[in-house]
Amino acid sequence: METIWFHVDMDAFYAAIEQLDHPEYRGNPVIVGGLGNRGVVSACSYEARVFGVHSAMPIYKARQLCPQAHYVRPRMERYSQISRKVISILETFSPVVQQISIDEAFLDMSGTERLFGKPRQAAILLKTRVKNETGLVISVGIGASRFIAKMASGYDKPDGLCRVSPGNEIAFVDAVGLKKLWGIGESTLKALARHSITSVPHLRQHSLNHLQQLFGEATGLYLHQVSHGLDPGIHTGVTKSRSISTEMTFPVDVSKRTVLEQNLLGMSHEVMFRTIQEGVLASTVTVKIRFSDFSTISVQTTAEKPFFSAEQVFTLAKSLLASRWQEGQPVRLLGVALHSITAGTPFLQQELFENPYQRKRDLEKVVLNLRSKGRNVQKASLLTPQEEEKSP
Questions:
Q1: Quick one: fold of 1-164?
Q2: Main-chain phi, psi angles of 72, to 5 degrees
Q3: Catalytically active residues, by annotation
């Protein structure tokens, strides 16, 4: 049986939802992020990208490049709500759905041809279902591995559909080009250029041993694998125990604490809102960090009781980040995951002093409920961490 992976990417997800909810934004640049002087861009519409705006860019820089854009604060609970709706559609297509962030998921479509037709037919059906039921546009990449499927979904965005047939992986990565090869950022490109490696075929001419001598064991192995169209194993299979997770790969390596912590805050809210929506509890939080040399670490901690609030998750996640990261270290990927998932709601033991996070959890439930009814409500803590937010 042929192995078939789909990678689904919800195009410009945050900005697309803002355009969906606000018709006056449609066709215009939309930038989502913290709006203070130290805020960063969380996401932007394709209309804004034309002006050079990208995620993780400082808001002040985005304003210089695209002052005419609509600037809006993130609404993580709304984005999480729509994300769950999309994922529920994906789950009707495959028994194996691996959500890797709020706007991305892998589907194992092996053996589903009798149900949905050939891979391209199934992808068209999936795209149509999502568009009809949510109003959102998705891109779908199809390949024999997660890596190729991931690359394929970004090949013809937005509203993309690309299949890489088995045996065509090397031709595909050559067509994508070194600059757009997934996982290779500006610092790696500069390092490759110093050794006169300027294309994927040039990279493939070097042996694994030589690449590891030039760039180190982890980076050398990664470069060797991707240049041959092989899956480097960044996204492994379903975890042994259920988890709720999200992660972000930055277009440019990030080395500022404020930017990393702002993304941690948004991701903490995202995973916590999902636990509220699904009616589950979690007591373990994990922070995943991938550095510029592709080395990856995960560090976690388990609380004595289930988490009550995203603020609690963020406090622990920030501490975990500080334990393994030093100011100035370039980070290419950051992730937050909740583990030790159980069904139910927090058991409120009568104690002498009230749990300081209970009121925050209650507030998050109220915000989530109001958002589900279309009300424009936002938690102030989600706007921008570590700074006072100013109106745009």
A1: Alpha-Beta Plaits (3.30.70)
A2: -130, 150
A3: 104
Nearest CA to 42 out of 258, 263, 245 is that of 263
Per CATH, the number for 169-227 is 1.10.150.20
The two structure tokens encoding residue 143: 């390949």
pLDDT tens-place string over residues 342-388: 765 544 333 333 445 555 555 555 555 554 454 554 544 444 443 33
d(CA 144, CA 146): 7
Residue 390 has pLDDT above 80, yes or no: no
Which has the closest alpha carbon to 230: 187, 181, 193?
181
> Which pTM was predicted?
0.72
The answer to whether 390 touches 266, Cβ cutoff 8 Å, is no
The owner of tokens 């995943």 is 288
Q: In the CATH hierarchy, which top-level class contains the domain 244-381?
A: alpha beta
Between vectors from CA 330 to CA 35 and to CA 216, what angle results, nearest 5°? Answer: 160
Q: What is the pLDDT of residues 90-137, one digit of tens each?
A: 999 998 998 888 899 999 999 999 999 999 999 999 999 999 999 999
- Sketch the domain layout of the chain as residue ranges: 1-164, 169-227, 244-381
